[in-house]
Write a structure and sequence with these properties.
single chain; mainly beta; four-stranded antiparallel β-sheet
């Protein structure tokens, strides 16, 4: 989703046509950029689905594949949704689902967390400002009952679309969202202790991912993250990559002073590390929600 004149990214896991093609539709004229960071074999643990509306909490919109109470959600009012058995997702054998989650017209600035119900983790899946319509891709593990919970810090409408699911114990291991790091001095360290400062330009943040947050020390090819830029000093972009030579690709775009997240599936270096490059100085947050076997 976008507004006039905006530069905004989102992660997309996209099923291909039988001829290996994708179509990109925009409601209005815009320039488009696409960067690729991996592919799933047809017979892999990931089962793609044609994007399907799961739910929309707005009263003037139709129900999706799962009927929910039409209202805003926020604070202690958490939306609980049964995913297993809906929208082409099997009733059993599903470890996680690939979603696009959108906040619509929140009453204030805040964040949303998508988690497998139970205890809510200290992690964000989506950040927003008052009145904004903004999406983010989310790979979300299911509870044992096949449910997902949607928490918002403030009241907002929510939309969720699904584009695939991951089989249990077959290549992708979902994790309850966990804070890996937060560069802001006023916030607690995450699972990986880093120097608390802004990062940008030649000052690249290098983080060892393997052996932390439930990620094994070996056998890991890539991780699924939510990466957030907080209060950058100017407009720019972030690239998350397996260290070494930095690729000509963006993982996240931002404007000055913005707080904005994006989902990133990031391959690890042979030493289990990731590098976080920002074009200009900014604080960074990373939360992890799963890993892919190497």
């Amino acid at each position: 989703n976008f507004t006039s004149g905006q530069t905004i990214p989102n992660a997309v896991i996209a099923p291909l046509s039988t001829s290996g093609e994708l179509c990109f539709y925009s409601q209005v004229d815009t320039h488009l950029i696409a960067d690729i960071n991996g592919w799933f074999p047809a017979a892999s643990s990931f089962a793609p689905l044609t994007p399907t509306r799961l739910f929309d909490t707005r009263a003037d919109q139709g129900q999706g594949a799962v009927a929910i109470t039409k209202q805003t959600y926020g604070g202690a009012n958490i939306l609980r949704v049964k995913i297993a058995g809906a929208a082409g997702v099997p009733t059993a054998g599903v470890g996680a689902v690939s979603l696009n989650v959108t906040a619509v017209d929140p009453v204030g600035s805040g964040f949303a967390t998508v988690f497998p119900c139970g205890d809510r983790p200290n992690a964000s899946s989506l950040n927003f400002q008052a009145g904004q319509t903004i999406p983010n891709a989310v790979i979300a593990p299911l509870s044992a009952a096949g449910e997902i919970c949607f928490y918002s810090q403030v009241d907002t409408h929510l939309i969720a679309d699904i584009n695939g699911w991951f089989a249990t114990a077959a290549g992708f291991t979902p994790l309850s969202p966990t804070r890996v790091f937060d560069t802001r001095p006023g916030e607690a360290q995450g699972a990986v202790a880093i120097t608390k400062q802004t990062y940008g330009g030649a000052n690249i943040l290098r983080v060892k991912i393997t052996g932390t947050t439930g990620v094994p020390t070996a056998g890991v090819g890539a991780v699924s993250l939510n990466v957030t830029a907080v209060n950058p000093t100017g407009a720019g972009y972030i690239t998350v990559y397996p260290c070494g030579d930095r690729p000509n690709a963006s993982s996240l775009n931002f404007t000055s002073g913005q707080t904005i997240p994006n989902a990133v599936i990031a391959p690890l270096s042979t030493s289990g590390e990731l590098c976080f490059y920002s074009q200009v100085d900014t604080h960074l947050i990373a939360d992890i929600n799963g890993w892919f076997a190497g």
